[in-house]
Specification:
Blueprint lengths: L17 H28 L7 H9 L5 H35 L11 H15 L5 H23 L8 H25 L1 H11 L8 H20 L1 H7 L3 H6 L4 H23 L5 H13 L3 H25 L8 H18 L7
């Protein structure tokens, strides 16, 4: 007697739930966007001058020339938009930098971008007589770009090209040199320090729409370039040998990644000054939520970082009323415990 056995199909629940995971990740993006919209609306409403929410909402859409309308349109709207752009730039540049170096504790400042911007601002104040934020922007941006080019040039010398270790060492060396250069100028010209310290602490206050218009194209180009590298960064995470075997252009990915970091971090630093820990903490949080896939880590970092930055800016406005606490100080207080927690973990998740 012959018994015919029919193939047993695996239940649907046993199959890899890729579709469900994709749906949950997409839903998470929508939730993050809703949260970003909420903190932006809160940023328009909350400030040193109390304005009822009904008046805020009304003058936001109908500028009647009142005092409230001037505060909303001339001060809070540019500040909020800049907070979103700077936050997105810092979060995305941090995610790209961590993917390039395969180091979950890497920060955009590792390439010397922040210090290059700071050194250029000091030069502008000390020798070019620059006094306004709009003047700082151009000096800071070109200083950040120059520092990144020098670091990449130093890191790419020798056999093997620009490896992550060489870039980190070159960035540390350039940062130390620029720090000494800044200290020397501040000691020789004490009057420069009074102007430099307000930019160096990191702030979104006092930034007008003209700064947003100038820097938005650089940030948009950096965002598009970073997102286009997501697949290449996934392959690069497997290692250089494996990446090349899979057909990835490792050198080109590093060059384009460094260019994206320079555009994003340079523009953000030029606009708001050095803001710490946003580019470090947010990509780490994004990887905890969605895993190591850069196709999701990059968008999540781009959305969650503005949420953190704008929320920190709001907190700085209300924590010491009627005075304000600069957003760079708030993010440092919030980010330092996160950084310590990451360092104390026994095993850091691989990218």
């Amino acid at each position: 007697m012959t018994v015919t056995m029919e193939p047993v199909s695996r239940p649907e629940v046993d199959r890899p739930p890729r579709a469900r995971a994709q749906t949950l990740r997409f839903a998470g993006v929508l939730v993050a966007l809703a949260l970003l919209a909420f903190v932006c609306l809160l940023s328009l409403w909350v400030g040193s001058k109390s304005i009822p929410f009904s008046s805020t909402w009304s003058v936001l859409w109908h500028n009647d020339g009142s005092t409230e309308a001037v505060i909303i349109h001339d001060l809070r709207v540019p500040r909020t938009i800049l907070g979103v752009l700077v936050g997105a730039a810092l979060g995305l540049s941090g995610a790209v930098m961590q993917a390039l170096t395969r180091n979950p504790l890497a920060d955009p400042g590792i390439l010397g971008v922040n210090m290059g911007a700071a050194a250029a601002v000091v030069v502008g104040i000390a020798f070019a007589g620059v006094t306004g934020v709009l003047g700082y922007v151009w000096f800071a941006f070109f200083g950040a770009a120059a520092a990144a080019v020098i670091v990449y040039g130093l890191g790419s010398t020798g056999r093997g090209g620009a490896t992550p270790d060489r870039l980190i060492m070159a960035g540390a060396a350039i940062t130390a040199v620029l720090q000494a250069f800044i200290s020397a100028i501040l000691l020789l010209k004490p009057q420069v320090f009074d102007q430099f310290r307000f930019w160096n602490v990191g702030s979104l206050a006092g930034r007008r729409m003209d700064i947003v218009v100038i820097l938005a194209p650089f940030i948009v180009v950096g965002i598009l370039l970073s997102l286009s590298l997501a697949r290449s960064l996934n392959v690069l995470a497997l290692g250089e040998q494996t990446g090349r075997a899979l057909g990835a252009h490792v050198g080109r990915t590093r060059v384009l990644g460094a260019l994206a970091v320079t555009l994003l971090c340079g523009a953000a630093t030029a606009a708001a000054g050095p803001i710490a820990f946003v580019g470090l903490a947010v990509p780490r949080i994004a990887r905890i939520i969605v895993g190591p896939d850069q196709r999701w880590v990059l968008p999540y970092s781009m959305i969650l970082a503005p949420v953190l930055l704008v929320a920190s800016d709001i907190l700085g406005r209300v924590i010491n009323q009627p005075a304000e606490l600069q957003v760079g100080i708030v993010t440092a207080f919030l980010g330092a415990p996160v950084f310590i927690a990451f360092c104390r973990r026994r095993k850091l998740a691989r990218l």
